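Example 3.
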Amino acid sequence: MELHEAKDKFIQAWGAFGSQWGINRSMAQVHALLLISPEALSTEDVMEQLNISRGNANMNLRALIDWNLVDRILKTGERREFFQAEKDVWKIATHITRERKKRELEPMVRLLGELKQTSGTTHETKAFKQMAHDLHDLTSRIDAVLERSTRSDVQWFLKAASTLLR
Amino acid sequence: MELHEAKDKFIQAWGAFGSQWGINRSMAQVHALLLISPEALSTEDVMEQLNISRGNANMNLRALIDWNLVDRILKTGERREFFQAEKDVWKIATHITRERKKRELEPMVRLLGELKQTSGTTHETKAFKQMAHDLHDLTSRIDAVLERSTRSDVQWFLKAASTLLR
DNA sequence: TTGAACTTCCAAATAATATTGAAAGATTTC
DNA sequence: GAAATCTTTCAATATTATTTGGAAGTTCAA
């Protein structure tokens, strides 16, 4: 496969993949583009290569910086800002995991913790409390596992273990 | 908190949570409703309780059955079908994981496997191939971990280990 | 075979989300 | 300090996803 075609496929696929996971298509595409660019790109570069507007490019670049997936680069003698993606896939996975854990999982755990204390003793209430309890238990465990496995001081271990278990 | 309020909060939250994860709001809400219903519900029940149309209720019930999260129940002497959610949260998590793995992760692994063989030796091509390779490696590993941890014959072990590690 | 009771399908309507582009805001240079 | 260059904002617009509701399909009992 030729580079041009492969690049395009990758960007499209990453965009589609992202939108299945609640990340908007453009944000995922900008990320894909930066992931495979050996050099940092300017806003203009991103606009051109993906055919998107300035506003869109800007908004998504900022969002990626917010997620710690992209760094702003200042080149000496250049007025413009450049953008470069984190290239270490373990770090990428860690950052995405931690961000989503914080934004989505933690609030859910908190809510379930409250809900499992609902008052009442009817058949219906009991079923509800049981489910809230079980889900709270499950989500807390998942939260704990993710917390441990994304702590930077255990990354080296996971990487190693994963290789050994191959 | 009263049951009515708690139920409502749960359904809304599960719906919002779902839509952040690429599952449409109604499907997640129907699932939430069934999760906390001690008895199996009919299509009419779902329509009424969630204020959604027949078509919508039907479509999402079918989708949930497809995902193995809901079972069709036939009551003797009743013409209608009833629907009941799987209540074991470990099974729920397993079914969701396997389904998404199959639908989303596996195709991505396959694509990356192809892309990492792109031809060329330029600076740009090398960066591309490197990233495709690394991502392929990462996603395959994740796939392997999920495959093992959702095999029904190791569920008992995970459940036990998770309790010990609490 | 008919009709009642359901389920499913699908085109049109609606709602939610993402994108554009022009204008305003910053920052740097001369 | 004002022109040039770049970034950010946001209301309008476009796109995409979801939902509706009526029509067609299915199943079953009599």
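Residues 43, 54-55, 58-59, 62, 79-81 of chain B lie near DNA strand C (CB under 10 Å from a C1'). Chain B touches chain A through 47 residues (CB under 8 Å).
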